[in-house]
Amino acid sequence: MKIFILPVNKVLQPPPQNFIYPNHNVDYGVEQDFLIWLNKNPELLTPDSDKANWHYLPVFWTRWHINHSFAENREGLDTLQYKVNNILIDSKKTFTITQFDGGTLLNLGNALEFTAARTINKGIDIPILCALHKRPLFPVKKKFIGSFNGSIGTHPLRKQLFDVYQDNPEINLGGNLPTRFYKRWIQGKQFNLNIMASYIALCPRGTSANSFRFFEAMQLGVAPCLIGDIDVRPFQKYINWNDCSYFVKDIEQLSHLLKNLNKGEALKKGKLAKKIFFDNLYYQKWCKYVIMDLNASIS
After folding, report:
1. What are the extents of the domains in the chain?
2. Of 119, 147, 225, 252, which one has the fewest beta carbons inside 10 Å?
3. Is 211 helix (H, G, I), strand (E, B) or coil?
4. Do residues 50 and 8 make contact, with C-beta atoms less than 8 angstroms apart?
5. Record's InterPro entries (predicted)?
6. Domain spanning 144-281: which CATH class is it, in words?
7. For the whole model, what pTM was predicted?
């Protein structure tokens, strides 16, 4: 299989965006990561678009949309659509990587979107990644069944989670917290420690069906539980997610899980989750699965 990288003007690969989330993160994500990885694997590339099985569209969608007011009132979309239309050669042979909620927000014809943050848009799920968290040097004792810290208003499931569990001492819930480790430590709002002190990390969907917390928990060695109407755990053809995580569709299913949680099993899942994260899902590791999916699409 050969890939042709579509030439894009640097305006479509903007310099650092003016909003970064989570707060501890750096201005780097899966969109930049895949392009770097692909250029490190020249055996996959061809300079001839006609001989290529796939055309890769390397637009930095997240930076563009954030720098255009999150595409509010369609800001920037018409310009972006015009520029992309002038780049595409054959949409049926085109794929792109996006992290922005809702994907590219454009009409790309028959192009494939590998997306880290689906809403109602179609796409092939990939991990939504951020910079690594600091881990304490000492072991953290488990004291919660589950924990979640984050905004409440981005999806009804989050409000339901707080309504049901905010007074339960075995479930640690909190609102928006500072992300930097030392600030959490000083203020006693210890996002990292609360996750590590839990048997599972609660990861309710927000605006998108995915959650940074899912992969943050894996990095910290805690089994994540995705809560949402769509199971967007990525690369399910290649990763047996039931071995290292949980998925429930609603708070009723979550309540059943928490009531009957096998703590020993949760600990084993957390240990495996950390291994799978660093071996297969962190920056530069996940990209191979995109190639596997592309290969499968042409075979």
Report:
1. 3-130+283-298, 144-281
2. 252
3. coil
4. no
5. Exostosin (IPR004263), Exostosin_GT47 (IPR040911)
6. alpha beta
7. 0.93
